[in-house]
Amino acid sequence: MKPFLLLATRVDDAVAEAEFAAFVRYGGLGPGELERVRLERDPMPALDVGAYSGIVLGGSPYCTSDPEGAKSAAQRRVEVELHALLEVVVARDVPFLGACYGIGTLGVHQGGTVDRAHGEPVGTVPVTLTAAGRADPVFGGLPGTFDAYVGHKEALRAAPPGAVLLAGSAPCPVQAFRVGENVYATQFHPELDAEGFIQRCAAYRDEGYFDPAEFDVLAARLRTTSAPSAPLVWRRFVERYARD
User: What general EC class does the enzyme of this chain belong to (predicted)?
Assistant: First the structure.
């Protein structure tokens, strides 16, 4: 099987390793079936997109809607590199899944507006499929409404022009969309379970997603949650696009 490629921007090494392991586990992938480029550390290499079964862009400490002057040099470089890659991905309809940071990145590339109007606090939220989502080959096998892990400061105001809205939630109208036939994005995390989310919250406890003094209460609450259907998005994406 051609490997999948994870494009990561996790500055914290422990978070980066846990994210990679989660995508492997929930994708049902074996050794060597998921490669990774850590863009926060290394420039984007010259990629032959045809060498991969598909590409996934994970979450990030970066916020697309941050003022340009507030972005680090690394973030500005990453955004330029991802824009160039998406030019190829969208034009060729390469299998792609952007998760959290990935939905904003793809959304902006496609002419959407990302701002702070529809951020969601850390936790689970009921995500509801649209009619198009219920008919979609990746999303169509999921329940009509399912819980998913979220925690984001920014979000799309609406699906980008020409995109197909696949799912939304009450506080965040764009939880998933598709461009063309094979380019997907989700606001929620399709690679997380409760313990993985708690670990991530611990790493980002001082980054403004929640009151740091409330971390223990938040962690206890997260341990009572589950979101078993959301990872099926990533698993079904892998199953659909895995190829020799």
Answer: ligase
Contact partners, residue 114, CB within 8 Å, separation at least 6: 64, 65, 104, 107, 108, 154, 155, 156, 157
Give the structural domain span for 85.
Answer: 4-241
The three-state secondary structure class of 7 is strand
Neighbours of 38 (CB within 10 A): 15
Q: Is the CB of residue 45 less than 8 Å from the CB of residue 38?
A: no
SS in 3 state form for 77-88?
HHHHHHHHHHHH
CATH number at residue 51: 3.40.50.880
Question: What is the pLDDT confidence band of residue 34, given thresholds at 50, 70 and 90?
Answer: very high
Sign of CA dihedral 227, 229, 233, 234: positive
**pLDDT tens digits for 169-194?**
999 999 999 999 999 999 999 999 99
